[in-house]
From TrEMBL:
PANTHER family: DNA TRANSLOCASE FTSK, SPORULATION PROTEIN RELATED
Full protein name: FtsK gamma domain-containing protein
InterPro entries, A to Z: FtsK/SpoIIIE/SftA, Ftsk_gamma, P-loop_NTPase, WH-like_DNA-bd_sf, WH_DNA-bd_sf
Domain of life of the organism encoding this protein: Bacteria
Coiled-coil annotated spans: none
Record-annotated FtsK gamma domain positions: 118-170
Naturally occurring in which organism (per UniProt): uncultured bacterium (gcode 4)
Amino acid sequence: MHLIIATQRPSVDVITWLIKANVPSRIAFTVASLVDSRTILDKMWAEDLLGKWDMLYSPSWSIEPERMQWVLVETEEVESVVHHIKRTIDPAMLEDIYDKSIVEWESSNFDWSIVAWEYDEDPKILDEAIKVCREAWKASTSLLQRRLKLWYARAARVIDILEEMWIVWP
């Protein structure tokens, strides 16, 4: 089981001692100050990282954080790979891959209660919204309004949640 907690600005009001005690392994990307670094890792050095590809990993079994670098893949690169695959792959094969992913998704029985609690949203609505978007191969506020009979504000909020979770893209 994994738990990912992300915040735009680390603060002791957000990352409390109780959270730190229950989440012993932590990752910090580049932060603005020594205080922010200590808030996340209880150590300095996250303020000296190089940029988007640089991070410090502090596992629960180690005293010192470990510096790691990861690959940044820009949106244009992803789009060019997807375009190449769409151009070169057999459409029947794409349908087969899509059908298998739908079966895997539906058989996974993902529990939306934690996500729904965090966003104060009904888990059934989130699950239904994902099914509607997958069936239609698109995601929009008006689509959810029509199919799930939601008011605009709630449908827009559901789309925002799905975008934030990277289930759909803007």
